[in-house]
Structures are given as structure tokens and as C-alpha cells.
Specification:
mainly beta; 48% strand; 9-stranded antiparallel β-sheet; 1% helix
């Protein structure tokens, strides 16, 4: 079973302009450039995909951060409808001089290279269809290597001499202002476990809150935007929107209450095979002053699995920010449907509620293996049954 460190279906439809890492908390990707949108029409699965338009006049990229590693395994789906006017970068590991990159060429082909190394060209992907890219970048020795597949077909590896170095982020798009590619990305999964390569066919799904749990809301502490106590009014329906807007649709903590919280439950999944789960919490402070709050994901026994945020929601401004964290498997032996369906969120716990804290949206993104996906190398091919209404289909990977 893969061990993802990042699961991204772009279902929250929110990017921000700042990044903060520490403990279990990681703010959503750094977003650079005006050509970044969330496309609800051209998406592979779910409600949205990430669309990047590299204009040829400005850098356009999103940087996904993670803990330092010398092995990065990834899998994502890309779509393009036209070749760029110049060879343009769609994916890169920034870092040392020999950083690895994937490009969309003027011929419509995808290619990979290390900075200063020979270019390895793969198949054309400019046909309006979704194509899966699987890759493993290894920088642990004196030879750095990129291994890759496109749509289950293994490509020639790229290599360059180097020294052992660490990777700490992945850039979708380009920091080069001259690049001109327009492309879409969906269903991204990252791992730092070498044996997870290639991840193979998968889908990233998402669920939002659909019911309230048991609150400890207090009086005039956990409230809706109008000041009505949570418990008198429901919390879940204030946290189930994408994209999040803030406005008047949020849960707020308006007074200190280190033991006070609102609890919400999530829509159940029908999936029985789950690779991993990531929580996303989106909110803001009422103004640019620092405050404090906690956002937790718990299992059915009320054990905390991840603190997505324990600190300032506002990052010294009043904008919406997205925080994320990988949710620990409750049983430790791999996710089960029962594990997932027992998850809940608790928000609140503020020791400094001036300004008040506002939660706009909470969701869980989770990765599952998919029909038609190639089995990861060295792993057993097996069949599962997916039930969706009256439809049943066998899935093999």
C-alpha cells in the first residue's frame, strides 16, 4: 500500500500566496502568477482541476512543499490541447543546479531533463486527453536519476552526475517568464517511499462535512457569523463550500475558550481500498492581528490523528488561507472504509480570539487505486469491487 505525503485533487479550489511549515501544519502551495485558475469544466475527476496558463510574459507556478527528502515518487494526470510556442516547463524539482524538470515541447511531446543534461523525449500528449505521468527522482548519491512512465509505458531514464542533495518542494508550472504552455493537472499524489514507484492509476476524491457531531461550543464562544451559538445553529453547513468565500458563511470563535470547539462529521465513502487521506482547513482572521486556534481531525474514538493547525489562522493578514495535513491511519495497518467513515473534525480551542477566528471550509481529500491502473512494480495485482448506486465494476491494479 502506498504511503502518500501529499494528496491533491484541487477540490478546495483555493491557492494562497504564502507558505508556512512546522509540525503537522503546512499552508497550501505558494502561488505565483496570474495564470492560475481552478477549472470546473475540464477536470479529470471531482469538481475541479488546476489550470495553468504560462503567458510568455510572467512566471506561472504553484510550489508544493514537503519535508526534506532524497527520494520523491509522484503521479499526476496532465492535459493539454495545443503545443506551446517554446519548449515550456510543466513540472520541476527546484533545488541544486542539476534540478529535474518535465517539459511540454513545441512538437507536443513531453520530455524530461536535468539542468545541463541531455533531454529525454517521450510521447506526444497534446490531444485534449488526460495522460498519467509517474516519476521517481533520486538525489541520494553521486548520480541523480529520474525514472518515469507515461500512461503505463516506461520511458528512458535521465541521469546526471551530482552530489547528494535534498528536495523540499515541487513546482507545477514554470518560473521562466518566456514559457507559453497551457495545461491542466489533476489527481496528484506524492510519496517519499522509493518502493511506491510507480504509483499507477488512481483517483483523488473528496468529502465535506455533512452533519454535526457533539459540540462543546460554550455560550457566545463558538458561533456562526451572526453570533448564534453553534448547537443552536448547525456548523457543518457553514463549512461545506468550494471554493470558500468567507463572507457571512463561516464558523467563528469570538471569545477565548481553550476547551471549546465545534465538531463536524464527514460524508461517508463507498471505497474499500484507500491509499491515504489529507485534510484541508481554510479560514481567516477577522483582521491582520495575530490570534490562536486549533483544527484537528480525530477518529471515532476521539483520538487526534493530525492537528492541521495549532497557531495563527491569519498569517498576519485577513486573507483566506488553506492549511493541510496528512491524516494518520487510525489502525496503523492500512486505511479501511470503517476508519475513514469514522473521521471527524474539531475546530476552536482558542487561547487568543482577538481578532475572532473564522473557519470557511473543511474537506478530506483521499487517494484510491483506479480501474485500468497498472499494478505497482513488485506488488500483487488484485481485484476489488466498487459499488456506486446500482453499478458494480471490478477494479484491477
Amino acid at each position: 500500500m502506498p504511503t502518500p505525503i501529499r494528496i491533491e485533487g484541487f477540490e478546495h479550489q483555493k491557492s494562497v500566496g504564502a507558505e508556512l511549515s512546522g509540525g503537522a501544519c503546512l499552508v497550501d502551495a505558494v502561488a505565483n502568477g496570474a495564470g492560475i485558475t481552478f477549472d470546473t469544466t475540464n477536470k479529470r475527476t471531482g469538481a475541479a482541476s488546476l489550470k495553468l496558463i504560462e503567458s510568455g510574459a510572467a512566471a506561472t507556478n504553484i510550489q508544493l512543499g514537503f519535508a526534506s527528502t532524497q527520494v520523491l515518487v509522484g503521479s499526476a494526470y496532465f492535459r493539454a490541447t495545443a503545443a506551446p510556442s517554446v519548449d515550456s516547463r510543466i513540472l520541476r524539482h527546484p533545488g541544486p543546479a542539476e534540478s529535474c524538470k518535465f517539459l511540454l515541447l513545441t512538437t507536443g511531446a513531453i520530455a524530461t531533463e536535468f539542468q545541463g543534461s541531455d533531454r529525454i523525449t517521450g510521447p506526444s500528449i497534446v490531444d485534449g486527453n488526460w495522460h498519467r505521468l509517474d516519476w521517481r527522482i533520486t538525489t541520494s548519491g553521486t548520480t541523480h536519476t529520474t525514472e518515469w512512465y507515461v500512461d503505463n509505458v516506461q520511458q528512458t531514464s535521465a541521469q546526471i552526475a551530482g552530489i547528494a542533495s535534498n528536495m523540499t518542494d515541487l513546482e507545477i508550472g514554470s518560473s521562466n517568464a518566456t514559457h507559453t504552455a497551457t495545461f491542466w493537472v489533476d489527481d496528484l499524489v506524492l510519496s517519499v517511499t522509493s518502493g511506491d514507484y510507480p504509483l499507477g492509476g488512481h483517483t483523488v476524491l473528496s468529502v465535506f462535512p455533512n452533519a454535526d457531531g457533539t459540540h462543546n461550543a460554550g455560550t457566545n464562544i463558538m458561533e456562526d457569523s451572526a453570533g448564534t451559538d453553534i448547537g443552536v445553529t448547525a456548523a457543518w453547513s457553514l463549512l461545506d463550500e468550494a471554493p470558500p468565500t468567507g463572507g457571512s458563511d463561516f464558523v467563528r470563535q469570538s471569545a477565548v475558550g481553550a476547551s471549546n470547539y465545534a465538531e463536524v462529521l464527514f460524508t461517508d465513502t463507498s471505497e474499500t481500498e484507500i491509499w491515504g487521506v489529507e485534510a484541508v482547513v481554510i479560514g481567516q482572521n477577522a483582521d491582520a492581528t495575530l490570534s490562536h486556534s486549533i483544527s484537528r481531525i480525530l477518529d471515532s474514538a476521539n483520538t487526534t490523528l493530525v492537528e492541521v493547525l495549532n497557531g495563527d489562522m491569519g498569517l498576519s493578514n485577513a486573507n483566506l488561507h488553506a492549511f493541510r495535513g496528512i491524516v494518520s491511519d487510525p489502525g496503523g495497518g492500512g486505511w479501511t472504509q470503517a476508519d475513514f467513515n469514522g473521521l471527524k473534525a474539531r475546530i476552536g480551542f482558542s487561547t487568543d480570539a482577538t481578532p475572532n477566528i473564522r473557519w470557511a471550509s473543511i474537506l478530506l481529500q483521499y487517494a484510491v487505486p483506479e480501474v485500468g491502473g497498472a499494478p505497482p512494480v513488485g506488488k500483487t495485482k488484485r481485484t476489488r469491487v466498487i459499488r456506486s448506486g446500482a453499478v458494480q465494476r471490478a477494479s484491477r491494479w
